[in-house]
């Protein structure tokens, strides 16, 4: 495709969002409940299409930069999307620890904006708000705090259950290993006895 053709085409519609993509094992072990891994994603809708493609934002930006260098992608679009991504990350920084309220599905967008404006950036922050601070959140302050506490308690329950299952699996593996060793010992004894019997018959 020529540079002229690429410039005549309309660019895709792109927006960036933070999305959950698995569980952070180390953070979950410390918290005693599942802590999600959150990464920035690009949601891409080609011009004239209604289908939205989700891709890891940084990987996608690298891919289109390589294509632009080969003449297969409009370099002006690459520059535009990179600036858009930089603006997104600067205006939507995530907390280093805890579950971000920005990606927590319980509150709506307006509630998230209110919480972040008050410096409540994680579910854990919200759960620890004292009664005296609920009025600052709004009329739904107590409801939101209850949701946060229930979310944490449910997660801790899931963490305890996961640990129990892991302990059971470890016990099963240890028991299987013990049985394997016992069987090996029995087979060795039987072989030894068989050798002695054969030797005794030859001597007779």
Can you offer a commentary on this structure?
The chain is α+β, with helices and mostly antiparallel strands and 204 residues long. It has a domain at 1-93. 61% of the residues lie in helices and 12% in strands. The protein has helices at residues 3-8, 25-31, 57-69, 75-91, 109-117, 123-127, 134-137, 141-203; strands at residues 13-23, 36-45, 53-56. A 3-stranded antiparallel sheet has the order 1-2-3. A hairpin with a 7-residue loop joins strand 2 (36-45) and strand 3 (53-56). Helix 3 (57-69) runs antiparallel to helix 4. The longest helix has 63 residues, at 141-203. The termini are far apart. Residues 159-164 have low confidence and may be disordered.
A few lines on this structure:
The protein has 204 residues and is of the alpha+beta class.
Q: Tell me the number of helical segments per DSSP (H or I, 4 or more residues long).
A: 8
Shape: flat
Which assembly state applies to the chains in this document? Answer: single chain
Tell me about the biggest sheet? Answer: 3 strands, antiparallel
Q: How much helical structure, as a percent, in the residues? A: 55-70%
Q: Can you count the beta strands?
A: 3
Taken as a percent bin, the fraction of beta residues is 5-15%
The N- and C-terminal alpha carbons lie at a distance of 95 Å
The structure class reads alpha+beta
Record the strand order, biggest sheet.
Answer: 1-2-3
- Helix and strand run: HEHEEHHHHHH
Low-pLDDT sequence parts: 159-164
């Amino acid at each position: 495709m020529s540079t002229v053709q690429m410039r005549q085409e309309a660019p895709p519609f792109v927006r960036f969002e933070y999305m959950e993509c698995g569980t952070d094992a180390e953070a979950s072990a410390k918290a005693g409940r599942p802590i999600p891994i959150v990464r920035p994603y690009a949601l891409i809708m080609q011009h004239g299409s209604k289908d939205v493609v989700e891709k890891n934002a940084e990987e996608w930006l690298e891919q289109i930069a390589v294509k632009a260098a080969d003449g297969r992608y409009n370099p002006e679009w690459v520059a535009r999307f990179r600036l858009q991504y930089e603006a997104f990350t600067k205006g939507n920084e995530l907390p280093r620890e805890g579950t971000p309220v920005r990606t927590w599905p319980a509150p709506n967008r307006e509630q998230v904006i209110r919480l972040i404006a008050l410096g409540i950036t994680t579910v854990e922050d919200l759960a620890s708000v004292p009664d005296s601070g609920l009025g600052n959140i709004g009329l739904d302050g107590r409801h939101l705090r209850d949701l946060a506490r229930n979310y944490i308690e449910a997660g801790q329950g899931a963490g305890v259950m996961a640990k129990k299952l892991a302990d059971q699996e470890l016990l099963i593996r240890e028991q299987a290993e013990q049985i394997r060793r016992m069987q090996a010992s029995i087979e060795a004894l039987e072989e030894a006895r068989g050798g002695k019997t054969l030797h005794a018959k030859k001597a007779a």
